[in-house]
Known about the structure:
Layout: H1 7-30, E1 47-49, E2 53-55, H2 57-65, E3 69-74, H3 79-95, E4 99-107, H4 111-118, H5 124-130, H6 133-136, H7 141-153, E5 158-162, H8 165-174, H9 195-206, H10 221-247, E6 252-258, H11 268-274, E7 280-287, E8 302-306, E9 320-325, E10 328-334, H12 339-343, E11 350-354, E12 357-358, H13 362-370, E13 377-384, E14 387-394
Parallel strand pairs: 3-6, 3-7, 4-5, 4-6, 7-8
Antiparallel strand pairs: 1-2, 1-8, 9-10, 10-11, 11-12, 11-13, 13-14
Helix pairs in contact: 1-3, 2-3, 3-7, 8-10, 10-11
Amino acid sequence: MSTFIPTSARLGAYAIGLAAATIFAAAAILAAAPARDGDACAPVGEWSVPGGGRIAAPEILGRAAKAQVALLGESHDNADHHRWELQTVAALAALRPKLVLGFEMFPRRVQGVLDRWVAGELSEEEFLKAADWSRVWGYESTFYLPLFHFARLNRIPMVALNVERDFVRMVGAKGLETVPREQREGVSAPAPAGEAYLERLFAAFTQHPDKQEPAPARTDPGFRNFVEAQLVWDRAMAQALADAAARNPDALVVGVMGSQHIAHGDGVPHQLQDLGIKHIASLLPWDKGADCSRFSAGLAAAVFGMPAAQAAPAPPRLGILVETASDGVKVSSVTAGSIAEATDLRAGDVLVEVAGTPVKTSDEVRAIVGRMAPGTWLPLKAKRHNEMIELTARFPARK
C-alpha cells in the first residue's frame, strides 16, 4: 500500500507541526522546573526516562521519530492513555510525516477492512462491524476512534498486528507444538524469554484464580504453555511490525498495544530485536499513584506522566444471555433485577430488531446495547410464541 500523503494531508500535518512546536517549547521550559507535589515517579504532563530523570519533549520525540519502530503502550480501558497516544502520534507525524500505524486490536484477517477504512470507503458503523470489533476486541470503541480517524484523515496505513484468539488459546492449553503449522497464521518460532520476563510471567500465572491450589511451580507444564502463548502473541505482533518496516523502509512504523507487551523490553521489543529490528523506541504512559518500585531503568525509552487512573464506567447491560436462532437472537435467560426483567423480556423470546435494526447474531445485539447512553430508551421487537411484540428497555440515568 502506498504511503504517499496527499496535499490536504500534508497541510494537516503542517498544522499539527505548528501545534507540536508549541507543545515542545512549553515542555522544554517545564523540563527545567522542579517536580510538582505528588508527582512521585513521573511528573504529570511531562516526559521522564526511568532511572534518568526528566527529558524535554523535543528530545525524546525527536529520538523516537528516527527509530525504525516506535511502540506506544496503553491500559485498554483508560481514556487518558488513548488521548496520550493520539497526542504522541500527532507529534511524531509532525517530525516524520511518513508513518504506518499497527494495532494490537485487529487480527490479520481484517486487514482489508483497515485498508478500506483508511481509503474512506466505510462509515464508522460499517468499519466496526466489518472489523468484528465487539467480538475480537470489545473495549470502548470511542476510546480508539480518534486515532483511527487521524489515520484516515492523513491517509496513514493501518496494519492489523494480532492473530485469532483461538490460536493463542490453543497454545496456552496444549503448547505451540500441538498447533498445526497451517493454523499458525504465518507466525514464526519466537525467541526464548529471558529470565526477568519469565519471573514476571510466573507472577501473572500464579495470580490466576484456578492456579492457587496446589501452588504452581515454574516446572509446571501449564506454566510452560502459558509462556509459549505469551511469546506467540508477542512474536505475532513483532513480526507484523517488522514486515511493515520492510515494506516501508522510509516510514516510521508505530505499534499501539497493551503496555505489558512493551515494558522492560521483554515482549514485542525482544522479538523485534530477534527479527533484525535494532532501532526501537518504547514509550509508555505512567499513571500518577502507580507503584514507584516498578519505575526502574530499562522500563522504556521514556514515559509520560499521566493523571491518576480513573475507573472506567461499567458498560451498559440488558441482563440477558442470548444465542443465535434461525429467525433472530434467542434470549436463553434473563437476570433477576436487570433492565431486561423490568422490560418484560423473557427466556424464549427471539429478538428480531434492536433500535430499529434487524439483528441476526448476539454480537450485533451486544454492539447496539454497548452504545447506549445512561438515561436513554432502547426499542426492541421480539417474537414470543409466534406473536410479534414491541418492548422498550429503559437505561437508568447515571448517578
